[in-house]
Amino acid sequence: MPRAENGIWYDRAGSGEPVVLLHQGVVDSRIWSPVIPALAERFDVIAYDQRGYGRSEGWDGPYSHVDDLVGVLDEAGIARAALVGPSRGGRIALEAAVAQPERVTKLALLGSGLPGHPVQIEGTPEQEARWEAAEARGDLAEMAELDMEFWAPLGADEELRAMFLENAEASNADDPAVPVEPPVAARMDEIRVPTLVITGDHDVPAINEVGDVLERGIAGAQRLVVAKADHMIQWRSPEQVSAALIAFLDD
Questions:
Q1: pTM (2 d.p.)
Q2: What is the largest distance, in Å, between two alpha-carbon atoms of the chain?
Q3: Helix residue spans in the chain (DSSP H)
Q4: Which domain holds residue 43?
């Protein structure tokens, strides 16, 4: 499979208008495997593993999420693309939309974070105690289990569990990525591309509150709430997410 000059691994399928799929910060690009076949019937779909995740190279110092994304676009010969980002991937998509607006045609944000917007996320006292103990002994497997309890409360099948476990080191490391400044939360009025905000009704409340902020803050943003979906929205409801994305991207 292709690898950009910056060491970022990506896969490509289909033909049509370019669409880039980013992933949550606890898994890798395989999280999109239930959705890619439907999207690839209409679009040129790029899915990549963020730095340190999946098959991409790790970091050895400060780097830029936006530069990594642009490097993939350049390697693939794509001038402009729609960005589809859940959670951490949504943060990256938003940063790209304000830092490199000429490279972005549309935004679809699924259970997205928002750079510069504080999010208070806490587990139960028992989960907090388990996390502190696991972190103290460097138990990545236990940390992945706790991540699954929190971000995938509807359950994890074998493939989803493998993604959490295999990416636990990256997801629990101190990421030296340099953020875009000023942060996106203070610049949402700069986002002028069509935007779709998707949230899951079983996601953590703080993430769904970010969805409310994005819907209010980005001019013309559309909103969709997916029933029976936690933070792994595209894994839980691939048919509904595929249909929503196709309708939005085709419009």
A1: 0.96
A2: 51
A3: 36-40, 65-76, 88-99, 125-137, 140-151, 158-166, 168-171, 205-217, 233-236, 238-250
A4: 10-118+174-250
